[in-house]
Amino acid sequence: MQIVQTSSSSGVNAKGAGTARVVDDASAAVKGGASARSEAPAARSSTASLQRGLSNWDHQLQGEISNAQQTLDYLERSSSQLQALKSELAAKLAARQGREGQVEARVRQFSNTWRQRASASGGTLDAQLSYTSPQAAQQNFSIRGLTMASLQEGPQEVLAFSVGGANQALRSVNIEPGLSENEIVSRFDRALMPSGIGVKLGENGELVFSTSEAAWANVRDSLSVRGSGIRYPTGQMSRVRTDAEPAAIAPEEWHTGDTEALRATLQQVVQALAQLQAARSAVSLALAQATGRVARAQPVQVKVSMDTLAENFTEKASQPGYESLLAISSALVGISRERVVALLGLE
Q1: Model pLDDT for residues 62-102, shown as the tens digit of each residue
Q2: For position 345, what pLDDT does the model report?
Q3: Within 10 Å of residue 41's Cβ, how many Cβ atoms?
Q4: What pTM, to 2 d.p., does this model score?
């Protein structure tokens, strides 16, 4: 019988380390070589899970941190550009003329940056500057003709929706008299969810539809509905008209042709700066929370896995026979006062 010793990454001498693995490997050899080793013991499984957990323990959390850092960089760059534009506008309005065309150049610069919002934030910052990680940014929209009032009034009707063309599956919503606003929202949400469309109740009691920004162009260009000739008179599958929720910032509407236009643009720039600052605060909070979860996650995983290994050792040591002797003798190999002190210092 040969007891194989493994190295330790904790900085403690490897002699006598990896007790659970020693016990299981030796036990497997006694039970019959390869056939016994094919039955992975609980302790070996726990050790492997621990190793995987420590080296690659939360891809999603790492992604959230990366998204937050990327989005913060984008927001800080955008804020810096708007601050520069604000200064140029104020100087021009105060008759302290700067370089000719500088204001217009600043507007174009920020317009280009704003168009890069989706890619620059990893698709997690929507047009209202809401940070959505780990979910993708959403585009809210309304469907013309589908108002809460029209849905609560009139006779029963089944509305069938299609996204992506005639070959796509239809999603049906049964509308009947007496439904509450929440019931109507729930029925639409359940029916359209498989098509990647969510539905919620707006602040003014309206239906608000949403889909990922990446899917918005397809939804906008292909969403169709068929009714029973009540709310949609033709009774045939027909394209619906959608209205996207306007973006929080609209640099394409900033003009600099005269004094009044400069004043209006300056006011919009000041408002945009406040919105960017609010977004930066929200993303900074999300980053702090994700970082805190990083600090808490690894020790918890280590503790849980070590508890499992301890339970496995206790179970083996309490059984009469060779396995009990092997577990105890393997655990005692290399034990010294220095080793005990070192291990206690890991707490």
Answers
A1: 888 889 999 999 999 999 999 999 999 998 888 766 567 89
A2: 64
A3: 19
A4: 0.65
Whether cis (ω within 30° of 0) applies to the bond prior to 41 is no
Q: What are phi and psi of 24, to 5 degrees?
A: -70, -40
Tokens matching residue 339: 């080793």
Which pLDDT belongs to residue 161? 94
Q: Is 43 exposed, middle or buried (0-12, 13-18, 19+ CB in 10 A)?
A: buried
Within a 10 A sphere around the Cβ of 138, how many other Cβ atoms? Answer: 20
What residues contact 19, with CB distance under 8 A and at least 6 apart? 309, 313, 330, 331
43's CB contacts (< 8 A; 6+ apart) are 20, 21, 23, 24, 308, 309, 312, 313
Is there a contact between 210 and 197 (Cβ–Cβ < 8 Å)?
Answer: yes
Question: What backbone torsions phi and psi does residue 154 show, to the nearest 5 degrees?
Answer: 90, 175
Pairwise CA distance, residues 195 & 188, whole Å = 11
62 to 33, 38, 52, 118, 297: CA distances (angstroms): 41, 34, 15, 19, 12
Residue 328: which residues within 8 A CB-CB, separation 6 or more?
A: 317
pLDDT given for residue 309 in this prediction: 62
The letter for the amino acid at 291 is T
Tokens of 49: 């899970």
Reply yes or no on whether the pLDDT at 292 is more than 80: yes
